[in-house]
Amino acid sequence: MSSEARDTLVIPGELLGTAEEFVPGHGTYEDRGKIYACLLGHRRVDPSDRAVSVDALNAIPSVHDDDLVYGRVDEVKSAMAIVTILTAATSQRPVPGAPEGTVHISKAKDGYTEALSDEFAPGDLIVARVLQSHPSVKLSTAASDLGVVAARCQSCHGLLGRGDKELRCPRCGNREHRKTASGYGQIPTAAAKSDARTPA
Q1: Considering only CA atoms, which of 148, 77, 167, 70 is closest in space to residue 117?
Q2: Residues contacting residue 130 through CB under 8 Å, at least 6 positions apart
Q3: Same fold, 3-56 and 68-194
């Protein structure tokens, strides 16, 4: 089978190839030199090591290196922000156990960051990239498309709107700065539902 069929939907027991063609990967099993699917999902072939695997169709969401995730900032310290991970960007379901991750001050944005409290505030919803998933989750919001996607006014708790250079509260007029994502204001339903303090 060729790697062109990597997005083919397969069912458990379906033949994926032979042990001469591929190395069996996650979601597969080998029997008498043939490789079969053991999950309902999408067939994937990694051309670099010729491994065939199956990505489960209804897999329990988890956090992996290089994933994009949505999270809520719970605490901002001098050197890092502590974030509860709500959901992966590719999933409509919350990550079980709401794992905790951190954004180090050096990974908050491109360039020098004088104070992390100038970039994030407790309660902010962010989109971040996972730099490391084990043993602890380390996140980055440095790229322009990453950062805060929803923030509340620190004075009246109204949802901040995007201004020219700052965020502005339509309720009290307060202006605040954040390291905003290019898609500020676009909150995925799954992330909003996972965080009861943010309207869907």
Answers
A1: 77
A2: 63, 64, 65, 66, 67, 68, 69, 101, 137, 138, 139
A3: yes
| Euclidean distance between CA atoms 122 and 43, whole angstroms | 41
Give the separation between CA 146 and CA 71, rounded to whole angstroms: 12
pTM: 0.70
pLDDT tens profile 159-193:
999 887 899 999 999 999 999 999 898 877 666 66
- 3-56, which class in CATH? mainly beta
Is a pLDDT exceeding 70 seen at residue 138?
yes
**DSSP code for 4:** G
* Cα–Cα distance, 181 to 143 (Å, whole number): 8
Q: How far apart are CA 177 and CA 169, in angstroms?
A: 11
Domain residue ranges in the chain: 3-56, 68-194
DSSP code for 111: S
62 touches 99 (CB < 8 A): no
In CATH terms, the superfamily for domain 68-194 is: Nucleic acid-binding proteins (2.40.50.140)
Q: What angle do CA 106, 107, 113 make, to 5 degrees?
A: 45
Flag the least confident range among 2-6, 74-78, 83-87, 161-165. 2-6
